[in-house]
Amino acid sequence: MPETKGIYIRQRKWLFFLMAFYALGWGFTSYQTVFLGLAFGTSLSLFNMWLLNRRIDRFGETIQKGETVRSLGMFSRMATAVVAVMIAMEYPDLLHFYSVILGLMTSYIVIMIDILFQSFKFLRK
């Protein structure tokens, strides 16, 4: 599974870049609740991506051993999203609700963009 590690590391770099951009936006603009919501949602999205990567590694090891596979942990990722939304609803003066939701989707957007870049790179070779 070394190729999945490389993919995860590449996408994690993009998410950290976005988090740095959000920190700058929070510090230098008047839209602090929006950028804090984006940063909060993206950090939980990064956590969900880490969980998924860890489960995929275990999934591959389990398949190689010939054992049955439980799940990839959809419930835990959904629970993280629910907790994020509950926190955003509890503190609307700190976190912009829609920004938290957009931040939760950020890792999936990064995954799709990364797939496009990699497919175009593959086509050029």
Automatic annotation (TrEMBL):
Keywords: Cell membrane, Membrane, Transmembrane, Transmembrane helix
Compartment(s): Cell membrane
Primary location recorded for the protein, binned into one broad class: membrane
Organism name: Robertmurraya beringensis
Transmembrane parts of this sequence: 12-28, 34-52, 72-89, 95-117
Topology of the protein relative to the lipid bilayer: Multi-pass membrane protein
Highest taxon in the source lineage: Bacteria
Transmembrane found in the keyword field: yes
UniProt-recorded name of the protein: ATP synthase subunit I
